[in-house]
Protein: MFS transporter
Organism: Paenalkalicoccus suaedae
Amino acid sequence: MSPSTNSATYSPKRDVIIMATATAISLFGDAMMYIVLPLMWQEIGLTALWQIGVLLSVNRIIRLPLNPLVAWLYQYISYKHGFYIAMALATVTTLAYGFSFGFVWLLTARILWGVAWTFLKLGAYLAIPTLASSEDRGYLFGLHKGITRTGALLGTLIGAILLDQIGLMPVMIGFAVASAATFILLPFMSNVRLTIPSKEEKRVEVSYAQLLRMRFIVSLLVSAMALTIVFDGVLKSTLTYLLDGHMTEGLMIGALLIGVATMGSLLQSVRVLWEGFLSPALGKMADRSRSPKTLFAASFLLTGLLLIVLPLPIPLVIFILVVLLIQLLATALEVFNLAIAAEASEQTSRVRMMTSFSVAQDLGAAIGPLAGYIAAEWFGMQALYAGIGALFIICGIYWLRTSDSLAQANIHYVERYVK
């Protein structure tokens, strides 16, 4: 579907930049909660440590049932209107974080933030395939991902610095004002309706049940969930623990002693630093490749090998190098996965495919930390990483050997069975 805008002024890249910028700013408050809750939980009215875990996870859990509902709404509103709703909620919730009114207050704010994030994430997932062509779909997804990731980093850095200087309430008020300021940008987005094709563009739509009977689609969804379980769950929550085994005395750089917490933070942040320019470049690589699924498979294979090596007793320098390579490949895997999913949505159903993809990601992000620590407790850290490394290698072999035939089978299924 072509956007119903004036072709002389219409710019898909401009729309994606505005969407990504608004999303990045909306993340300021959320990123601060990961600093504030563990450090100041009593000061902001919490009474037990378990409440911290609930507040940091409820926004992810609420997205699971919300994805289909928001996808349905996007069939009747433009994605610009969806972003208006999301940024209004982001402004309110960020402001609410600054007031210490206790657990129920913050729980309500975190649930509303989950609603806002569903509109933002799913809006982008639906809009970019609508706006893009096959020549720039991966690039636009990469551009959006790179800008958005920067928001979490800026929120963490700026918020942490200002928190010690002026306190929580002024910081959150400032971040809320920044979110509200995005309403200046939103009118410049094109007013595109997502899934109402013209008669000439009318195509068969695939149901959720039919999607889940396609091996190609199920492979994409399983891959998306595996990526979020490992990168947003296991690796993020256990990296500092692994690092502690390699840095028993810290690391001296000149006269500066780098401790485990600092090094862990640096290794986590470096991925965000390079995603601003690396994600668009990787997206463009996927657009120009004859077989982006081969790139996807190769990235899975190499990442699997590195994950197996990571918990082994290796020198610190090698450990850091392995972590950096895994973070690099994580960016590549997520961009390639998005590009392939967006292409598949054009053959099936844009709304149902990208909604299913978003649910798979949210489910993986929700269960990743818990599943990782339970597995580490039962089997040990080396066994955990050997298991997820083997899973990635299996995924890589699967995509390498069967991706083309699966894609063809997917097209044949739509042509033969979907009426």
About this structure: DSSP finds 14 helices and two strands in the chain.
